[in-house]
Amino acid sequence: MNNCGPNWNREFDCKLCPRLAASRIQIVFPTPCPRAGLLVIGEAPGADEDELGEGFVGQAGRALDALLVRHGLERNRDYGVANIVRCRPPGNRKPDKTEIDNCLPWLWAFLLRTRPKVLLLVGSTATEVFLGPGPLHWHIERSRKSPVLLAKDAHPILQPAIRRLHGAMDGIFAIPMPHTSGMAWNRKAPDGKTWREIGEEQVELAVGCLELSYAT
Ligand code: SF4
Predict the structure, then answer these.
(1) Where's the Uracil-DNA glycosylase-like domain (predicted)?
(2) Predicted confidence (pLDDT) per residue in 104-145, tens digit
């Protein structure tokens, strides 16, 4: 047993969630995250990701890439991508609590291996796993006042990893943002702005936190 998570031998053929293991084409592993860099975390792979074996390659992922490229950030060089669960839920339903609990130790191990400094949390599932329950808009407002991730807010499975990362790295920033699918993107948030505008602002905040972390 590795002390950085569950049994490594099972990582490449994990079947902890029988329904997802039966319906997936493949497990979608996180892509490399530069050490002390930016890690984008979404909910789960979609159909394109399941087929191609890489996260954030569908339309929503490309929209996010385009936003980050505007800030000079390229995938696999300046940021990596991961999901809360690594297998596609059938019909793109939300992963259930057991599936999330099953998969978080893999994310836990990945965080400890790559030690990201800034987490960009895409959508409400990733946001609630790291920042606790609450409406996405409320989390976004809160992150603007204080973007530092507190271990106590995170899912209990992740708390030890986050404490260790804080100890080694003097704080991690966690920035929630709306899902980047076209439908979600063009709707209005409670403050009247479109979710797209809010998404752009949150990416800017994440980039600012990354620059701050490099400067200290
Ligand atoms: S979602 Fe995660 S825990 Fe569940 S079967 Fe896939 S890799 Fe394993």
Answers:
(1) 29-199
(2) 999 999 999 899 999 999 999 999 999 999 999 999 999 999
Structural domain spans, the chain = 8-215
Q: How many angstroms separate the alpha carbon of residue 17 from the centre of ligand 1?
A: 5
Q: At what angle do helices 136-145 and 124-131 cross, to 10 degrees?
A: 50
User: How many Å apart are CA 22 and CA 190, to the nearest integer?
Assistant: 39
Which one, of 42, 50, 167, 29, lies nearest residue 110 by Cα? 29
Domain spanning 8-215: CATH 3.30.1360.180: no
Residue 103 near ligand 1, beta carbon < 6 Å = yes
From 4, 41, 6, 77, select the one nearest 176 (Cα to Cα).
Answer: 41
14 lines ligand 1 (CB under 6 A): yes
